[in-house]
Design a protein that fits this description.
Number of helices: 16
Order of helices and strands: HHEHEHEHEHEHHEEEHEHHHHHHH
Number of strands: 9
Radius of gyration: 44 Å
Strand content: 5-15%
Shape: elongated
Strand order of the largest sheet: 1-9-2-3-8-7-6
Helix content: 40-55%
């Protein structure tokens, strides 16, 4: 028992590690069921709350769509004249620096479609006030129960965004947005000058441009007395559109009513095919800094299976490099070749002129192989063996086979044989054996 203690301990540790990895896998891979109270708005998600249908519809319609997997600071350099689709909520929050970079990008000419019930979390502007509805959705709430049957009453005026959207299917979870008036321009510029001490000239001008491009004079396309559901702003040289109901473009809502028409109007108003359209996936957890292969398999059991395979391989290499039993002697190689015995016997037979002994050694094996191939008894006479020759297609005549068999039988019976006759019989037997194979 003490001798195998190391092996038993290694096996126990291996099983414990595998059980631990499986437990971690079950905790990390499982997601809670999707619902409007627990949505996942990624364009990779084909579930009910995802936006994959919207993304693929644009892609198949000929729009230049792509997924944005970097932070907002890279928008100015890599997407100066693009349209960014932001669908919240996010798994990774937008910090203040990113929100400022997003506003600067819009003010410089970018266009933003922000689809969220809490747009202030993604846009970072304190002038946005949100009023939540009284309706509460649960995991059991169906899409039919979510739809507000009086959605068409939200159409505030005929605009390019509300064109041909009769039969709209907005959900009852749509929040109402209100926008506070901005501070006076003189106070804003003074605050900007006071906060720009130590900054570069570019940063100062960008900050002033963003504060000058405040959320003023909105165009309300959808809304009621409580606030806006769809609002449109000119923001500096750019444009931003707020939708307070992601259900309109979600997989379980985009095909309902006139929601698809509304989505088409939004894309056309923000540039259409003239601009590249990016879907923000960085804040949904898909970062370009990571390995693309790792990002592809993220959330699947494959990384844990790979880790288990590495651990098992390490254990195998470890066990192969250790000795768990008594030492064994090295195998001794024989110094003599097996052909030495054959050569010695042939030399002795040649000196003794024992040609009949050679036939006695070779012929029985040849006859047994021939009889087995032809399906006859080993004790069969040469005539019976020749008669069964038709069972196998051999390139040998009956006369040649009979002469070979009868010649060997006569030698075994005591007939004298010379070297020429011996070589002739052995050659015939080898030729016939080669055909049998």
């Amino acid at each position: 028992m003490r001798r195998y203690f190391g092996i038993i301990l290694t096996v126990v540790i291996a099983f414990a590690v595998l059980i631990g990895l499986n437990a971690v896998e079950s905790l990390s891979v499982e997601r809670q069921p999707e619902s409007e109270s627990n949505p996942w708005r990624s364009s990779y998600n084909s579930g009910p709350t995802g936006t994959r249908a919207f993304y693929q519809w644009l892609e198949e319609s000929g729009y230049r769509v792509a997924r944005w997997r970097e932070n907002y600071q890279a928008l100015k350099q890599k997407a100066p004249n693009a349209t960014l689709v932001v669908a919240g909520p996010f798994e990774l929050p937008v910090n203040e620096a990113e929100a400022r970079a997003l506003r600067e990008w819009i003010a410089a000419g970018g266009r933003l479609l922000l689809i969220s019930r809490t747009p202030q979390d993604q846009f970072g502007d304190k002038s946005i006030n949100v009023k939540y509805p009284s309706f509460v959705a649960t995991a059991q709430t169906t899409p039919e129960q979510l739809v507000d049957q009086h959605s068409d009453l939200l159409i505030a005026q005929p605009t390019e965004l509300t064109r041909q959207i009769r039969g709209l299917a907005v959900s009852q979870l749509a929040t109402r947005l209100r926008f506070q008036p901005p501070q006076p321009a003189s106070q804003t510029l003074q605050e900007g000058a006071g906060s720009s001490v130590g900054d570069t000239a570019d940063e100062t001008s960008a900050t002033v441009a963003v504060r000058a491009a405040a959320l003023t004079a909105p165009v309300i396309h959808l809304g009621d007395s409580e606030g806006a559901v769809l609002a449109d702003f000119d923001y500096g040289a750019g444009r931003v559109v707020f939708i307070s109901d992601p259900f309109v473009i979600a997989n379980n809502g985009i095909a309902r009513g006139a929601n698809l028409t509304l989505a088409f109007n939004l894309i056309q108003a923000l540039g259409g095919r003239e601009r590249r359209i990016y879907f923000d996936e960085y804040h949904h957890g898909y970062r370009s800094e990571s390995n693309p292969l790792v990002s592809y398999f993220r959330g699947t059991p494959l990384p844990w299976l790979f880790a288990q395979g590495l651990i098992l391989a390490a254990l195998i290499f470890y066990s192969q490099g250790r000795r768990f039993a008594r030492p064994l002697p090295l195998p001794r190689l024989s110094r003599h070749s097996p052909l030495e015995f054959v050569g010695s016997m042939a030399n002795l037979e040649q000196l003794a002129r024992a040609r009949d002994l050679a036939i006695e050694i070779i012929y029985p094996r040849f006859k047994a192989q021939l009889c087995r191939a032809l399906g006859v008894s080993v004790r069969a006479r040469p005539e019976e063996i020749v008669a069964s020759l038709h069972r196998r297609k051999l390139k040998v005549t009956e006369i040649e086979l009979y002469q070979t068999l009868s010649g060997c039988e006569r030698v075994l019976a005591g007939e004298a044989i010379d070297d020429h006759r011996l070589i002739s019989l052995v050659s015939a037997m080898r030729r016939i054996c080669a055909q049998l194979r």
